[in-house]
Specification:
Blueprint lengths: L17 E4 L2 E4 L4 E4 L1 E5 L3 E7 L10 E11 L7 E7 L2 E9 L2 E5 L4 E4 L4 E5 L4 E6 L7 E10 L10 E5 L4 E4 L2 E10 L2 E2 L8 E8 L3 E6 L5 E9 L1 E3 L2 E3 L3 E6 L4 E6 L3 E8 L7 E3 L2 E3 L2 H14 L47
Antiparallel strand pairs: 1-2, 3-23, 4-5, 5-6, 6-13, 7-12, 8-11, 8-13, 9-10, 9-12, 11-14, 15-16, 16-17, 16-18, 18-25, 19-24, 20-23, 20-25, 21-22, 21-24, 26-27
This protein binds manganese (II) ion (MN).
């Protein structure tokens, strides 16, 4: 038996129990529809933020998910995100339409187009800018996702990878591209630091298929375009459907065609502090990262750690200053979103 049948109300139990259904035992699997919220990104872009959500901070090591567009940008500057820092995470940029120029403090300059992956590993610190290039196309549509790094690599060396070719496979009515991690025997060449998957799924009109999942991983799915169902629940742009763990497969289908993105991975055990563009494990770690960025960006109030994030050469304009720290201490939260009790 399902915990809910209307497809909207979620099963709020943190650990769905096994339910006796006559001679068989069925697991009540989760299908939580989490509405995204609109957030301004830079001056010209509004995104749907799907993660973190109040009651769902993470899916595997995925800790942040922004869906931007489709935006008609011919008359405007498009995406204009000035240099800003990251630490403790990887950023994944994935486009459905348009192009984005990435520039970072390691000296990388990379244009990303649909079907290609830009993967930036921040480690201890990196800075980057992401802009729509001069002469950009009429539309911009895609995802920016963050992956939390495990503790042993969260303070490691920064890195950047551009992957123009990713493994893909056709299923009946579907075409799956594994952007990072692994799905059903397909493995992305992108460097991941925890058991994870991010996969693009195109569904033809009037089609349905079954994705093979791992029961020990948790998953969520979103629609980039079109309308679909996943395990009977509607998946539409602007929402994230959290699917929990315990699934060996996922039935998806569509009437008019859809472009979906599957997020999944081993549940992430660490409690994290996420603030601005930093992922850490303590309030002090975030304060130190902010201080180092402000020092390096030549903004008053910084520390001596001024070269931690480096400089984004070739960007025409000022870097983004960090916001003020909140007046209360930042508390680590677990993957469900609950702050940890005070020690
Ligand atoms: Mn960024």
């Amino acid at each position: 038996m399902r915990a809910c049948e209307d497809g909207v109300v979620s099963n709020l139990e943190p650990h769905p129990a096994e339910e006796e259904t006559g001679a068989t035992v069925a697991l009540a699997l989760r299908r939580d529809v989490l509405p995204g919220r609109e957030v301004a990104l830079g001056k010209y872009t509004v995104v749907h933020r799907l993660l973190p959500h109040t009651n769902r901070r993470m899916v595997g090591a995925w800790c942040f998910a922004d869906h931007f567009g489709p935006d008609a940008i011919l008359a405007g500057p498009g995406m204009q995100v000035p240099p800003h820092p990251h630490s403790g995470l990887q950023t994944v940029t994935w486009l459905v339409d348009g192009e984005v120029l990435h520039r970072d403090s390691l000296g990388n300059l990379a244009m990303i187009r649909p079907g290609q992956l830009n993967l930036m590993t921040a480690g201890a610190g990196i800075a980057h800018a992401e802009v729509s290039p001069d002469g950009h196309g009429p539309s911009l549509h895609g995802l920016q996702l963050w992956i939390a790094l495990p503790a042993d690599v969260a303070h490691g060396a920064p890195d950047f990878e551009h992957h123009p070719d990713l493994p893909s496979r056709g299923y009946s009515g579907a075409y799956v591209t594994v952007v990072i991690g692994a799905l059903d025997g397909l493995e992305s060449p992108a460097r991941a630091y925890s058991p994870i998957v991010g996969a693009d799924v195109r569904l033809e009109a009037d089609s349905s298929t079954t994705l093979r999942l791992r029961t020990d991983w948790e998953y969520a799915i979103l629609a980039l375009a079109g309308d679909a169902t996943a395990d009977g629940v509607s998946v539409t742009p602007g929402n994230l459907v959290y699917l929990g763990d315990g699934r060996s497969e996922l039935a998806i289908g569509t009437q008019h065609g859809a472009r979906l993105f599957l997020l999944g991975g081993e549940p992430f055990a660490d409690e994290l502090v996420m603030w601005w563009n930093f992922v850490g494990r303590s309030h002090e770690e975030i304060v130190a990262a902010r201080g180092a960025w402000m020092a390096g960006a030549s903004i008053a109030g910084g520390s001596d750690d001024s070269d931690r994030f480096g400089v984004v050469a070739g960007y025409d304009g000022p870097a983004l200053p960090a916001p003020d720290m909140p007046t209360t201490r930042l508390k680590p939260r677990d993957r469900h979103g609950r702050p940890m009790p005070d020690a």
